[in-house]
Design the sequence.
């Protein structure tokens, strides 16, 4: 029940509770077999049988439907130019996010690359924060200053959201180092893609993690394409779970949420005792690499629809639910409708959220302290004249004239020996 | 007077260490205060050809006190690398979250002995010997900082940190901003840089010019044992990522520093020698070349005001501005390259802010835009030498 409560607060769902109350489902565990057995490197794989409960099945379904709906809504928002820049969508890969969350706590850390919207949701992020951030509004998780590739949730143990391919892996090992330093029995999941698997910093970080037995779990989300380059064209050895050599690895069907859950549970136990382990999640993305990539120039539509028919993660859970008689078709459809409504409401609310204040340009560059302060009062800009211009025109005006003058004014005013609060400390 | 006191970071003159009080008393315009570390440079030859060892020689022997008088003076004497270590040790004692990582910092004691003895005292995890993987261990430090640890990354030579540029720029500098303030990255990245004794091009790099545009980091350069310890402590206590530039040739400077704990202000410049005729702005090793040139200039009747800017990002425009308003002439002496160096940025900043106070264009003396050659004479000509500084001041003050 604790797990259910957590899921509820995280994703604000109501329908699962309704289903349970009307159906009086038993809480007895259900055993599910993963789609394929695990392939292991230098380690004994966990068993194919996964224990689960009806609540968990329904939770998985709802969570994944929510994530799918969010990504599809983001797609149409991007096409209507409300989301700009780069937008990397996760639909097809939801099972990895959901299965991982089921195996760990919020004290464990997750760090990933730029395909981070769904993992952010799983870690406790709200739809409003996600959409507001995508649209660059103040209520976004990074106050609109990060964008699609920079979602973070400190309370949820989600460390981002990183744009440069592979750079998050040493960061992930740093998180694991801090966990070992503070001896707090938690692990870090450092996620990366099959494209990033060829980065040198991965092997450097892996070496250090193995050397010092850091509780780091490196998760390769292998969706078989590094942007437009298929894995066999980029890697001499596409068996990414074996690439760790002295570090054990496990290959997991990433479209099966229970396989992911089992593997992550197994990996957490291993990492806390023996140091790093690599998990390769065999998964697939339906969209292209990002919104500017149609996704069909380097793979056939047949391939995409084939995967959708045979391996779709939500379909798998739906079949399981129906076969175990946990809900009817209609109830599942209602869940989907409810999820869709939730997403639409969040989008509407996010659209109403204001753009960040121009003074936010200079906040959070430095932290107050033995650091630089900018005199906030000098940054209050007179906006009354600008209401007749469009947003773009006003911003151009700002950037050319007013901000430059104010910045100089701020800088010349804000340093020096007369700032008493930054005085050197002497007895 | 009060401003001078404040700029030394000394609360009251009554704290009174002999050297610093001598500094304070040197306000009368034409006397040169005896600052012990600068005193070293007197013994170097004026014409810039150094055939006999270092400019900063151990001529401290000439001014050594007898044991009795040494005991009576407050403070203790130590070398710059020992001052850095003292600052580091005090901070590690004070806060258990402070840790060090770098190549050979643990068992070996640090390639310049800054971390000697610390691994034996604090353990292998807290003073971590990393493999040779700058990009990754800098990234690891940033990741650890995101959770609340306060790591200090040592680059064995600053030039090696070019391999970690992505981590320093994107993650160290920008994470606080892109996360909307959720994460702070209180790291210190330190290491020796600068032109040494014929170390070759790749080991003589000055990275302050490469890092200066990175938003979100602070950069400081230490030049004396006193400010090395103070800046090290301030950098560790700062919530911002700080890059602390040390210089390979300055590690053996000896100075008497206070026994009491002190922390310096990261954004402040240091008034080395007050004057009236011209402001000379400098930092790190060039401070000593400037002080050497200052001796010649004083003999020729000029009165240069020498400021060690210390804070390379952001500039202490308050101190610099007051000086410019007083003297109306500026010479910048730096070891950075001419193109895109600290001097170039400082010239632009002074021109923008204090244009009305300048009587003449700013002269910026920097290293040549060449890879540092190995041959001794060529290497000397790469960096700014005291005669060039004297010539520049004379030209400016015509």
Sequence:
């Amino acid at each position: 029940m604790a797990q259910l409560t957590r899921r509820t607060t995280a994703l604000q769902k109501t329908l699962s509770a309704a289903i349970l109350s009307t159906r009086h489902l038993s809480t007895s565990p259900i055993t599910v077999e993963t789609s394929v057995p695990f392939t292991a490197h230098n380690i004994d794989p966990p068993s194919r049988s996964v224990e689960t409960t009806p609540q968990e099945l329904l939770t998985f379904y709802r969570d994944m439907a929510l994530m799918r709906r969010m990504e599809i809504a983001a797609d149409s928002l991007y096409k209507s130019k409300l989301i700009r820049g780069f937008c990397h969508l996760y639909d097809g890969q939801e099972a990895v996010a959901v299965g991982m969350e089921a195996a760990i706590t919020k004290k464990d850390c997750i760090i990933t690359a730029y395909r981070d919207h769904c993992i952010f949701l799983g870690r406790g992020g709200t739809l409003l924060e996600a959409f507001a951030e995508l649209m660059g509004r103040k209520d976004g998780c990074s106050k609109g200053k990060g964008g699609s590739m920079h979602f973070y949730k400190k309370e949820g143990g989600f460390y981002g959201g990183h744009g440069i391919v592979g750079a998050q892996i040493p960061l992930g090992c740093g998180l694991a180092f801090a966990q070992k330093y503070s001896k707090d029995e938690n692990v870090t999941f450092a996620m990366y893609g099959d494209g990033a698997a060829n980065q040198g910093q991965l092997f450097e970080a892996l070496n250090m993690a193995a050397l010092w037995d850091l509780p780091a779990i490196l998760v390769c989300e292998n969706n078989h394409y590094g942007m437009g380059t298929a894995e066999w064209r980029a890697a001499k050895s596409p068996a990414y779970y074996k690439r760790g050599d002295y570090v054990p690895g496990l290959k997991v069907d990433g479209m099966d949420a229970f396989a992911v859950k089992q593997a992550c549970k197994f990996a957490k136990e291993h990492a806390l005792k023996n140091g790093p382990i690599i998990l390769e999640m065999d998964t697939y993305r339906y969209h292209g690499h990002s919104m500017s990539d149609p996704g069909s120039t380097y793979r056939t539509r047949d391939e995409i629809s084939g995967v959708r028919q045979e391996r779709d993660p939500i379909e798998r859970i739906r079949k399981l639910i129906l076969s175990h008689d946990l809900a009817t078709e209609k109830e599942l459809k209602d869940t989907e409708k409810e999820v869709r409504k939730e997403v639409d409401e969040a989008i509407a609310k996010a659209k109403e959220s204001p753009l960040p204040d121009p003074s936010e340009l200079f906040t959070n560059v430095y932290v107050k302290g033995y650091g630089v302060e900018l005199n906030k009062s000098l940054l209050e800009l007179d906006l009354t004249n600008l209401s007749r211009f469009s947003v773009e025109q006003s911003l151009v005006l700002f950037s050319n004239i007013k901000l430059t003058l104010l910045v100089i004014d701020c800088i010349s005013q804000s340093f020096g020996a007369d700032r008493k609060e930054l005085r050197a400390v002497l007895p | 007077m009060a401003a001078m006191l404040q700029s030394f970071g000394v609360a009251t003159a009554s704290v009174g260490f002999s050297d610093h009080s001598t500094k304070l008393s040197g306000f009368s315009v034409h006397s040169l205060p005896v600052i012990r570390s600068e005193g070293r440079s007197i013994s170097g030859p004026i014409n810039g050809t150094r055939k006999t060892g270092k400019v900063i020689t151990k001529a401290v022997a000439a001014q050594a006190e007898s044991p009795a008088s040494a005991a009576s003076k407050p403070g203790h004497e130590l070398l710059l690398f020992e001052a850095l270590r003292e600052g580091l040790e005090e901070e590690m004692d004070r806060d258990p979250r402070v840790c060090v990582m770098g190549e050979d910092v643990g068992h070996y004691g640090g390639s310049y002995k800054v971390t000697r003895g610390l691994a034996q005292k604090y353990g292998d995890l807290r003073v971590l010997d990393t493999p040779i993987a700058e990009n990754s261990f800098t990234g690891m430090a940033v990741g650890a900082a995101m959770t609340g640890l306060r790591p200090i990354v040592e680059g064995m030579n600053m030039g090696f940190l070019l391999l970690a540029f992505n981590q320093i720029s994107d993650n160290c500098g920008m994470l606080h901003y892109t996360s909307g303030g959720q994460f702070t990255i209180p790291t210190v990245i330190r290491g020796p840089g600068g032109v040494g004794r014929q170390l070759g091009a790749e080991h003589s790099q000055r990275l302050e010019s490469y890092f200066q545009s990175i938003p979100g980091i602070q950069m400081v350069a230490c030049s004396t044992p006193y400010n090395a310890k103070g800046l090290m402590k301030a950098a560790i206590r700062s919530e911002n990522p700080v890059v602390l530039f040390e210089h390979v040739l300055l590690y053996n400077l000896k100075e008497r520093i206070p026994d009491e704990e002190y922390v310096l202000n990261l954004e402040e410049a240091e008034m080395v020698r007050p004057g009236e005729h011209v402001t000379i702005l400098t930092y790190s090793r060039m401070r000593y070349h400037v002080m050497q040139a200052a001796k010649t200039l004083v003999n020729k009747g000029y009165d240069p005001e020498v400021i060690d800017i210390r804070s390379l990002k952001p500039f202490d425009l308050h101190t610099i501005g007051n000086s410019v308003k007083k003297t109306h002439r500026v010479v910048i002496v730096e070891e950075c390259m001419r193109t895109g160096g600290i001097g170039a940025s400082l010239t632009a900043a002074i021109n923008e802010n204090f244009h009305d106070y300048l009587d003449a264009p700013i002269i910026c003396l920097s290293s040549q835009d060449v890879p540092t050659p190995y041959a001794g004479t060529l290497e000397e000509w790469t960096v700014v030498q005291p005669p060039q500084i004297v010539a520049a001041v004379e030209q400016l003050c015509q």
